Amino acid sequence: MALLDVRNLTVRFDTPDGEVQAVSDLSFTMEKGECLGIVGESGSGKSQTFMAAMGLLADNGRATGDVLFGGANLLTAGEKQLNAIRGNKAAMVFQDHMTSLTPHMKVGRQMAEVLVRHRGLSAAAARDAAIAMLKRVQIPDPERRAAMYPHELSGGLRQRVMIAMSLLCHPELLIADEPTTALDVTVQALILDLIREVKEQDRTSVILITHDLGVVAGLADRVAVMYAGRIVELGDVAQIFAAPQHPYTQGLLACTPRLDDVGKVLKTISGQPPNLQRLPPGCAFAPRCPFKIAACAERPPLRPAAGGGLKACARDDIASINRAAS
Predict the structure, then answer these.
(1) pLDDT single digits (tens) 229-265
(2) Are 192 and 114 found together in one domain?
(3) Which domain holds residue 147?
(4) In angstroms, rounded to a whole number, what is the distance separating the alpha carbons of residues 242 and 253?
(5) Are strands 205-209 and 222-227 parallel, antiparallel or unpaired?
(6) Is the entire prediction scored with pTM above 0.70?
(7) Pick from 3, 15, 12, 76: which is nearest to 45 by CA?
(8) Strand ranges for 31-93 from DSSP E
(9) Exposure check for the chain: N or C terminus, fewer CB within 10 A?
(10) CA-CA distance, 32 to 42, in Å (whole number)?
(11) 193-233 pLDDT, tens per residue?
């Protein structure tokens, strides 16, 4: 049985300008110990998919469908059941490392609270375990850092504190939302090594939400490419990078800077992502797609691709066009 089974998830938001459908009929599964990369432009629905799964949508949001985890449907679970899962069996590292920590509480106390609540440890035992976890994520002088407030730490240290906090209860699932945003390259490498270590040593399943395809290439086992609230391609990481089956995936990879492309003009995807209040009929990517055909006027289902994996595209020859162009 899959560790996480998402079925027909749709997320909507009520706004003064009308309803916004941020995620549309999304389905996928992931297995124990797997790392699934979720990639796509800003506004593609990556973060809202998992905010909905964890019961953390804003007040104006609502989700339908099923998110099955550990025998529970997270979308229909009550607050008490969700609180027993969040931070315990499933944990999320948010991309804003400043506002995700309580500003008026010292770091050690925030971390100890997790163990007191979920594992019933005494305050002293919880504090010792928190300091041990800070050591594991390579925070120097952890006893002193535990006595600090979040604003006294650098961005890289705050991000490592959040990862440490998420790992305290040894969760089965870790959701990392843009874990390396706005960090320098050395800190990025450290954080990615920590996530890799957790996946390999603890057999923790990892969902890696990012716009950085290089991060995905180095960590993920499979990749889900999202556009306008839908998965448009899903497959093994090697297959996705070697022979992308969807024009949007092909465009994303073409936009990625390469060390051997010195002096070349960086490619872009023409146009802009669609307005989620007024999605175009048929394929949402068609207005930007250089390969569109008449069949793109119908919304394509996510179906098996000739080269492996799944794709939501009316054409079967995108991979061969990509090879010919290269």
Answers:
(1) 999 999 999 999 999 999 999 999 988 877 676 667 7
(2) yes
(3) 4-220
(4) 10
(5) unpaired
(6) yes
(7) 12
(8) 35-39, 61-69, 72-73, 90-93
(9) C
(10) 28
(11) 989 998 998 889 999 999 888 889 989 999 999 999 999 99
